[in-house]
Amino acid sequence: MMMQKHLQQIRLKGTMAVLLAVGSVSAFPAWALATPVEAATVQLTIGNASAETNSAFTIPVTATPTNGEIASYNMQIDFDPKAFQIHAITSKYGSSDLTTCSENTEGCFQASFDNENGWIRVIWIDPSTGSTDPHPIKGKQVLFDISGTTKASTGNKTFAIDTKSTENFSFTDGHFIDKEPQQLKPEAQIIENSFNVSDPPSNSGTGTAPTIDVKVYIDGKLQEKSATAITTTINGRVTTSITVDNDKVIQQLEHNTVKTLMLPFRDNTSQVVVGELNGKLVKAMEGKDASVQIQTDRATYTLPAAQIRIDNISHEIGSNVSLEDIKIRVKIADGSAKQSDELKLLAQTEQFNNVTSPVDFEVEATFGDKQVQVHQFNNYVERSLALPDGVDPTKMTTGIVLHNDGTVTHVPTRIHKEDNKYYADIKSLTNSTYSVIWNPKTFTDVTSHWSRTDVSDLASRLIVQGTSKDAFSPDRAITRAEFTTILLRALGLYSPKEAQAVSFSDVTSSDWFEPQVTTAVSYKLVSGYEDGTFQPNGLITRAEAMKMLEQALALVQLDVIKDAQAINALLAAFTDQDEIQPWARQAIAASVSQGIAEGADNKLSPNANITRAQTAAMVRRLLIKAHLIND
């Protein structure tokens, strides 16, 4: 890897060496300390904030390249340790997993901090810089969040940066001059944070930030005095942090069969709501197969404790750390102004209507200066977005996920009504930022076709596309790459489950379908042929399609028929069942038993090429059967 190659050529000094010594980063390219060029500049913004003493805060740090692109950055942020206690530096762009980040399009991120001496060190690089497919930061981007608590020291505080030291503050440009990367020259005046820390109101009588009791429900039963909340204004955003009385709830778990721990906080003035539990409570809930549910006016997040995978977090943080000392934060937040603006612009371009504003969902674990993002789940996790009052229920199409590059894609969504209000239930295998759109689509050549409902529904959900603006070509055969792409879109899968190297001889990094094939392989939805090929442009048979659908059944937790006698009895109803090859019999039986494949004229036609219309029908039936979309 380029990142590793650069590291073999240099030795870092000063505070960079300190960062390496504490194990926060194992690699950083020499060109990160390149000579600055006058032409390229970058502006750094550390958001303004105000908070009372002994209260939680989160501050975003944003960079904007004003002339050039950011291929790496390195900075030290200094603070008064008497004023702040830092808890976490949360990457908003870049992966912290050094074993896989070189394959991540957002690059590699590492951070460390020292609360005794008052400094934060952060490094990010795009390892693909200089390759044929680099991924530099090209526009305004939130780099990371600084989270912590204020101390008793009041007054105007700052998070300062020594901009004159390239060792403490440097950015490199994504463009090369004479095959050498160039360092961005920071603007003369960086927009630094102005943080006002004040005493709480005198009538609080405690000398600490005022807290309020929050209602806690266990399986619908109110638990008195089991959680408190602190509300502060951070960077212009009203933030409420709810802290659960972990020991009190654990006692309830020990003596009762508990399924849901619900924290409702219906205060429409809070733009960010964070529920905080410790690892010990999460482990106890996991043993009860219980979920934590955070409710706000705009959204509800229902997270099974098992999906947090507290044992993995404990292993990553350190097995010597007690579970009760690990904090788990479940956050629901309004999307950023940038995300809202990008969504509005995209809606105009793509001609769909926004139904809701973006809402962001995050889960993180922290202990001291160690932080673990819980981003991926083993099973689908549900979030419900409240739809505006008075909205027409027929004008709600699907939930979408907002990606960092400004694009949006489908996520499985059902609409339900409760107490005369509509909600969009979005299910996903990852955390991200979501919204709901209305996007009616139809094609002239399916108006009278048997597949009209299936095609129009999936097209409206951004799952299938036409062969032209007005045509779908329903009876045209489909390729293996196209079928794979449609299945992934339907399931809401857009990135690999884990680092996955695709070794098919006919799939290269320059192919449009390579990301889809890589993702499908990581979720075990597809496999290649014995000769090492994937044959992406080859037509896919109905049997091959149902083999992939069988793999998807396991992902959406639908039963797969495995008993040989039952399989033979089911397939005996079709006159061409002898044409089914042994490898496909279980898969086809699974699709038939779940109502995904129906056949025609008592035939399954396993060796016939599947058409675009048949693909839409089968994929939509899968989503309906799995309760991922409405019928």
Please describe the topology of this protein.
Blueprint: H1 2-7, H2 14-21, E1 36-46, E2 49-52, E3 56-65, E4 70-78, E5 84-91, E6 108-114, E7 119-125, E8 141-150, E9 155-157, E10 169-177, E11 180-186, E12 195-198, E13 212-213, E14 216-218, E15 221-223, E16 227-234, E17 237-244, H3 246-255, E18 260-264, E19 272-278, H4 279-287, E20 291-295, E21 299-304, H5 305-308, H6 310-317, E22 327-334, H7 337-350, E23 353-354, E24 359-367, E25 370-373, E26 376-386, E27 398-402, E28 408-411, E29 413-418, E30 421-430, E31 433-438, H8 452-460, H9 480-491, H10 514-522, H11 542-555, H12 564-571, H13 582-593, H14 612-625
Parallel strand pairs: 1-11, 2-12, 17-19, 18-20
Antiparallel strand pairs: 1-3, 3-8, 4-7, 4-10, 5-8, 6-7, 9-12, 10-11, 13-16, 14-15, 14-18, 16-17, 19-22, 20-21, 21-26, 22-24, 23-31, 24-25, 24-31, 26-30, 27-28, 27-31, 29-30
Short description:
The protein has 631 residues and is an alpha+beta fold.
Describe the overall structure.
Strands 13, 16, 17, 19, 22, 23, 24, 25, 27, 28 and 31 form an 11-stranded mixed β-sheet that branches. The chain has a 9-stranded mixed β-sheet with strand order 5-8-3-1-11-10-4-7-6, with helices on one face. Helix 3 packs parallel to helix 4 (279-287), helix 9 (480-491) crosses helix 10 (514-522) and helix 9 (480-491) runs parallel beside helix 14. With 631 residues, it is an alpha+beta fold. The longest helix is centred in the middle third of the chain and has 14 residues, at 337-350. It has 3 domains: 2-197, Sandwich (Immunoglobulin-like); 211-438, no CATH class; 444-625, no CATH class. A hairpin with a 2-residue loop joins strand 24 (359-367) and strand 25 (370-373). It has 14 helices and 31 strands. Helices cover 22% and strands 32% of the residues. Residues 1-37 and 202-209 have low confidence and may be disordered.
